Input
Amino acid sequence: MPLSFHPPSALRSDLRCRRSEIMRRFVTIALAVLATAHLAFSPQLATAADEPIVVTDITGRTVTLPRPAKRVLLAEGRQLIALSLLDPKPVDFMAAWLGDFRRNDSESYAQYRQKFPEIDHVPVLGIGSDGTFPVERAIEIKPDVAVLGVSFAPGGRANDVARQLEAAGIPVVFTDFFVAPFEHTVASVRVLGRVIGRDARANEFAEFYEQHMRRIAEHVAHSAGPRPRVLLETHAGATDCCYAPGAGNIGRFVAFAGGDSISASVAPGPTAQLSLEYVISANPDVYIGTGGAHLRASGGLVIGPGFDAATVRDRLAAVVARPGFAGLNAVRNGRVYGLFHNIIATPLNVVAAEALARWINPQTARDIDPDATIAELNARFLAVPLQGVYWIDQK
Output
């Protein structure tokens, strides 16, 4: 029979103090990272509409445009959300885009289509998930600027795309809402705002975003006890087990919200693949599944626009009813939650950060309200409001 050790009360108090100090230091470092990103990537002051603009993109490259762009090529569908924060008619700026948003988030696309029917006529350059990019077609369209994700940057898997576009006289800037969104979300919105001449709007959103992130950090700093072990399963229920974030991507937000991601330690990059045996051995205290309309046919978690709370909870219950999950601490203790997957890799990931904070530290973050944040985003920023279930508790 294993021995157990219970430290005396004085030692327990000392351990709690040390844990609190470690948490405060982590939050300080995290906020410093955000502040550094803010300073490093803040674009130059706005210029007149007919004057050249200079922007420093997410990779540190300085790019000059003859004037604010009116025709923008989006290499990632998620960049549409950023445009929607910056202008009430985001589709007017779209010269072309890849089809990943239409395919992966059909319900959100339907909402944009309802308000902006002309979106159906924006040229689609491909799906974007197979690593290909039709450069010749993009050059024919002659956009004022191409906004690429960091996978197209020098050293990325498709870096030759940027070189070919620039050789054809098309300026290229890079944003990042996927690989390191914790560090790059605000900077990426500022880059896009600079490109289309919406600096003031980008600054307004940046202030909103950073204010909400500071509030999360303040709550986490007051949490006590060990950091809960968290399994965040992406595309939950698509397989027996388990896609997950690594230390990057949304995994960085898990740490910021006070959790100890069980997948971060085994995958330093943005994604991980976990075995059921590993998940059982790690025995997480909190389970968070992400999903969306793209999992409708597979029986996975459906959540987001187009789904009601009862349907989402039924699917969430089915996800954690898979073999091996019933014995996890998270499931036995009812700490099971659902999150709309496609909100993660957009500037709206602040909503995901707030939901994570509530779930990971329910005592200290109980007054953080993602629904109130969604309402404020709808009222102040978004051209197409968020309508649907984006986060949910299993009750």
